[in-house]
Predict the 3D structure of the following.
Amino acid sequence: MRRTIQIIESIISFLSGLVQGWILFLLMILVLVDVTTRYVLQNPLSVAEEYGAYMLVAITCMGLAFTWKEGSHVRVELLINRLSPAIRQWMRVITMLIAFAFTVFMVIASYQLVSFSFMFGTRSGSWLRTPIAWPQIPLIIGSVLLFFQLIIEIVRAVNDLRSRKGGTS
Amino acid sequence: MGTEIIVAVALIAGLFVLLMIGLEIAWAVGVIALIGLVWYVDQPINQVAYTIWASLNSFTLTAMPLFILMGCILGNTGVNERLFNAIDKWVGHLPGGLASSVIFGNAVFAAMSGSTIAATATFGKIAYPVMEQRKYDPRLALGSIASGTVLAPLIPPSILLIIYGAWQGLSIVDLLAAGVFPGLTLTGLFILTIFVTVKLNPRLAPPPFKHPWHARWRTLGEVWPFAVLIVGVLGAIFGGYMTATEAASLGAFLSILLSLYYRRLTFAILKQSLLDTIKVTSFSLFIMAMASLISHVFNSAGIIPMIKEYVIALPLGKNGILILFFLMYFVMGMFFDSWSMLFLTFPFVMPIIMALGISPIWWGVVYVMAGEQSTITPPFGLSLFVLHGVVPQHPIGTIVRGAIPFLIAIYVNVFLMFLFPGLATWLPSVIRG
């Protein structure tokens, strides 16, 4: 069990963290190349505006799981911190279950969105005429990665609760 | 109308409960929006994914992670230390010595970073040890470090204003230009605050030390790459040569070159900076996407128009309503940071601002100060916690007591913006021609 969790977490860290970091680096290069072709070659490439926005969607959605793993999603802890550790842990399990339920809806909603885009063959309005379903796929992958990260977090929190119970009884 | 009130109260109360039990802000907003979407507005759930897609698919918004990357690289490599030393040589003779240097340092760092957290951590690490060594009172030292960081989201490039502008469909160049003069007046007011507090209590700081001219000129030779970075980025934006996103790319790239020039960049630091940027981008833009969703739901349910009509009908007048908003942010600031407050309240506040005929550019800058004052007010002042993390030997109370005089300066600056709206609106009009 522990080994499986480790493997899933390292996959999430790679796909949701590191890969997105390098996509950001690529975004920086892409925008600079676009500017250079405009000013130096007088022949703008004009792809950064469209692909840059797609990259932002990918970075944000795919990065959700890694950001959760690192504890960087903001929440109000002021009142929670005043509760006893046991109640606090229970509350954490409850809030993570709520987050998990919402993430399930996100997976379904993203899948529906991409399916409709494929079904209707929707394309971008620019000269590139990109089939819009492809840059929407990170929404599904990002939600699925988050789905697995939350399962891991919930299992961990429940185990903590159990060990606390075992320790106190 | 009756049903809308019940739905509005139920959803807002639900949101409040979810936030208070510690659910992550984005999910709290998302859950309530989803309930409203399915239960009251009766729209398909794929609206959730469509809103995420539509609100994030924006090239303008791409400037945000690129500017954050620029700040992360400069912060993580520690090259700012040279900049602070140089500024201290030039302005360290002013009253309060190093405290004034911290304020000027923040103003210059603000022109490269735009992130309050990055500024607080940087100056806490760089400036505080020197101030402690020279026997500065911790209240003045920590108060100036925590407060100076409020300049980061005012002086361009401001990440908070970029998010606001991209989200609300406003000109980023106008917003960034609008922050220049209020940023400069606040810098002046902070220096004046140090001058007055040190005059009233000379034990707060040792006598200022005047560095010889040759030492000052020598520092210029060390920090010229910073000038290239600032002039390059801001010149590209305000000169009309590049969009904010393009200038942000240039800034991130130049910050890599600058760190290489000072031999401080390693592969590990670059990787860490990229990952830090991903975390900030993902958490903040996901809240923004969820705020767009709740805005869509509340608009479709007729709740936002109802709140708008109610607030406008209050017998307070335009300025009274603005003061009411300011008080609301003061209270909310005890629990939320400025970014979260922006996302949570603007779906309701912006329609009122527009209906009152208030310039959204001017309001953006006022909001920055209303939101950022919360970073130095207890109990949930983000800068207080970040700084306390850097100097754990001092209690948060010491930092708060040190920051109070600077809070007054922030309120005076807001008052000046009410008296002279041109402070924010004049420069954008000049740039637009």
Summary: The two ends of chain B are 46 Å apart (CA to CA). Residues 388 and 396 of chain B are 6 Å apart (CA to CA). Chain B touches chain A through 61 residues (CB under 8 Å).
